[in-house]
Amino acid sequence: MSSQSQTKTDLRRWINAQIREVPKEQRALWSHQVQEVLMGNPAWLPKDGGGVVAIFGGMKLEVDVMPLFSWLQEKGCEVALFALDGDLMTPWRVRLHGDLQSGVMGVLEPLREEGGRLEIADLQVVLTPGLAFDRESGMRMGRGKGHYDRIFGDPGFRGLKIGVAFELQLITGVPSEPHDRAMDHVVTQNGWQSFK
């Protein structure tokens, strides 16, 4: 294991421990506050009013963005979620909460209905979870599988990358490698940070 990998592994453990120490009720409150920050600044939505916004089904220690589903639809956006196919995440259009199922590690995934698969190039905004985000550069550190890095590295992707996290996940000095991608913005319960 390289020292860079070890550094990331240690940081992942430390961040996970920090989040686990926060009571479930506090995380729920912070998630609600993040949702309010996102809804309070709709300038991040696709300008054409009908664009595709990808959200995530979330693990239990991540910000809950699922309540944004209906709000995004009210704003005229199509909502997409990712399905995990081996090592690749593929975006799928989701019209109703009922079009979701529990996937890998309990993360909500789309049912993969016929005609619902989207291309990476269709995504105009991707709300992105992560374990840590660099407060100075917007660099993201995920769980180490590279799923979002592959999406953002796809030549067809031209969308806005918005990291979504709790404030305690914003740190200085997130280690990065050439395949890692920085966010355009990061939003927490305390507000927005822009890096674009």
UniProtKB/TrEMBL annotation:
Q: Which cofactor does it need?
A: Mg(2+)
An example Gene Ontology molecular-function term: ATP binding
In the record, biological process GO terms are: folic acid-containing compound biosynthetic process; tetrahydrofolate interconversion
Check the record and name the Gene3D superfamilies matching this protein. NagB/RpiA/CoA transferase-like
Q: Which reaction does this enzyme catalyse, per its entry? A: (6S)-5-formyl-5,6,7,8-tetrahydrofolate + ATP = (6R)-5,10-methenyltetrahydrofolate + ADP + phosphate
Is Chaperone included in the keywords of this UniProt record? no
Positions annotated to bind substrate? E62
**Keywords recorded for this protein, A-Z:** ATP-binding, Ligase, Magnesium, Metal-binding, Nucleotide-binding
Pfam families per the UniProt record, alphabetical: 5-FTHF_cyc-lig
Listed binding positions for ATP are K8, T9, D10, L11, R12, R140, M141, G142, R143, G144, K145, G146, H147, Y148
EC top class, in one word? ligase
Question: What family, per the record?
Answer: Belongs to the 5-formyltetrahydrofolate cyclo-ligase family.
This protein is called 5-formyltetrahydrofolate cyclo-ligase
Taxonomically, what lineage is the organism? Bacteria, Pseudomonadati, Verrucomicrobiota, Verrucomicrobiia, Verrucomicrobiales
